[in-house]
Write a structure and sequence with these properties.
Number of domains: 1
Strand order of the largest sheet: 3-2-1-4-6-5
Helix content: 40-55%
Mean pLDDT: 93
CATH superfamily: 5'-nuclease
Order of helices and strands: EHHEHHEHEHEEH
């Protein structure tokens, strides 16, 4: 199952709960992470603002990205203005389309309001976890 994961879910995984379970499914190979250069830049820009007591998850993530573990990458996919209220969200849609993702996992109100882009479903982390457990 291929999915683009919004930054809010990705960063929230450092605090546990359902977002961490979604990322753990990537680590276990049940989920293929779809990323682009703009998505990775945003992940690391936001993560650099935090100081983590336990950096083990950060090291696991860095290692997974370095090894291209269970992920697909596109450099700079063509963005359109799908989300007018928050144009920064368009990078996730462009990535998902370019890499033929089935899902975008997000807690972002603007993305969730769309519900889907073509055949790509926009789902909450909880819904993604339900889909992975089926």
């Amino acid at each position: 199952m291929r999915a683009a994961v919004d930054t809010n879910v990705f960063v929230s995984s450092f605090f546990g709960g359902i977002p961490l379970k979604v990322i753990e499914n990537w680590f276990s190979g049940r989920l293929t992470l779809c990323v682009s250069k703009p998505v990775l830049k945003e992940y690391f820009d936001v993560l650099s603002r935090f100081e983590f007591e336990d950096e083990s998850l950060l090291y696991r993530l860095m290692s997974a990205f370095e090894k291209n573990f269970n992920l697909v990458f596109v450099n700079n996919p063509k963005e359109e203005l799908w989300v007018k209220e928050d144009p920064a969200d368009n990078k996730f849609i462009a990535c998902a389309i370019a890499l033929k993702a089935e899902y975008i996992v997000s807690g972002d109100i603007h993305l969730k309001k769309l519900k889907n882009i073509g055949k790509i479903k926009i789902v909450s982390p909880a819904k993604m976890l339900d889909l992975l457990e089926d």
